[in-house]
Amino acid sequence: MHRYRSQTCADLRASHVGSTTRLSGWVHRVRDHGGVLFIDLRDHYGITQVVVDPDSNGFAIAETVRSEWVIRIDGDVKARSAETVNAGLPTGEIEVYARDIEVLSKAAELPMPVFGEQEYPEDIRLAYRFLDLRRETLHQNIMTRTDVIHDLRTRMREASFNEFSTPILTASSPEGARDFLVPSRIHPGEFYALPQAPQQYKQLIMMSGFDKYFQIAPCFRDEDPRADRLPGEFYQLDLEMSFVEQEDVLATMEPVIRDCFKAFAGDKTVTETFPRIPYAEAMRKYGSDKPDLRNPIEMQEVTEHFAGSGFQVFAGMIERDPNVEVWAIPVKGAGSRKHCDRMNSWAQQQGQPGMGYIFWRELEGKFDAAGPIAKNIGGERSEAIRNQLGLELGDAVFFAAGDPKKFASFAGEARTRAGEEAGLINENAFEFCWIVDFPFYEWDEEAKKVEFSHNPFSMPKGGLEALENEDPLTINAMQYDMVCNGFELASGGIRNHLPETMVKAFEIAGMSKQTVEERFGGLYRAFQYGAPPHGGMAAGIDRIVMLLCGAKNLREITMFPMNQQAKDLLMGAPSGVDKAQLKDLHLKLNLPRE
CA 37 → CA 53, 58, 74, 263, 561, distances in Å? Predict the structure, then answer.
């Protein structure tokens, strides 16, 4: 028999009754039932109940074991009585009567419990992550992550993509965040950068004649903490294709992601065909470029109903500024003063003066528009709003007004809040869409200059002619995002593969041709020697797994994450280094004064 086990703690079934077994694992918990000890023995695969009676050779040892000790057990597999069968456990029909027990290693007093799923302070969980990872939910989340990555790899290979690895030590690149820099010992005063993404390398792979590339790529960004991204590093399904247009990329990747979700979605539904929504439409309907389509609320403009009305707050704004619009957020089933007051209170908590509303109730057998706004604009205008929005008795509408560029995101948040308050969110669905036609540039008010709004390597719609003859802020890009349940899961674009178009695009954003050649020399040179039209995207592995696991935090699906201060509490990183290491790297520290 094997030194440690003949089966795992998930293997034994009723068919094994009458056989002997050897199991090894962690003591999940110990129970004393009238002198007979019950040990739940756990390994990576599952749990088996072990019975140790006073006549067993291992009883004396069993009395000493504690939670998380690692032990080996030899015993006989017996059937549980009908009343003690545990239907919730794969091994629940049997138990192992121990004949011999060996302690393989002891565990000190635990700083946090492994048995049970109770909440525990995050700093303790991260400092003792090896214990945290033993807990059932987190352990299973990590295995789901492994299975999802394997599934994606398989689907990419079936779609004729080849997996290539790109360098980790590379040059600094303007991906929109700070680089992690690595000083060079061999080249004093010079630095490598950890890749924010394999963007330039994957384009160079297309230049090199490889038709379809992918990898599960680590990406490094020295960003401030964000709720939807792990500090320091994250992983993405990165891919690129040659001789493609935008629709080719979307049509190729939609079934890969959709079918992966179907494989792990359980009882939840998955969008069969992802709608394509232009960016401008998404902002107007949902107030977001990553809309949660589980929420059925769609906003509409209702400015005309307030122009010249008795509600002077809106009417005055419309009269003074031609950019002012009034947006309506129609909510089915929200037609009560209590519901409307909650939304108004929420808006005030967001720093707004409040949130105007109208709700409809029945009065003397007729529709009655209630609320301060309805009183000010009158019944005719209120009825026109109701008809435009298709609202009925018991429904409500909330309003946001001003320059849409300034209030659209707030309106989107209000749409989300209203949908949650009214119970309209379909929690049993993964609702996907593509957001397309992103603006190529945006105006940086602080710097007073035009900046890239998304990926600087994308092709502008209209190409060089548009860059030379159109207002940059009106040009759209061949860029697209995949969105699911309010999360951006992937982003990509058709690349700008023409050197003169690339230079012009960066010149508009304030970079000279010389700067482009210096910063993107490899890519720029490659474009001189026959560049195929190409495009691709990158999908966030962490967010995909988070959604599929139903987790609320990315740290719940990552094996060894940092905390929100970008510190690894388990390994003690970042940490200081000694003077000899600094000398080798030709560095001196210039630390801020405390």
Answer: 6, 11, 15, 41, 38
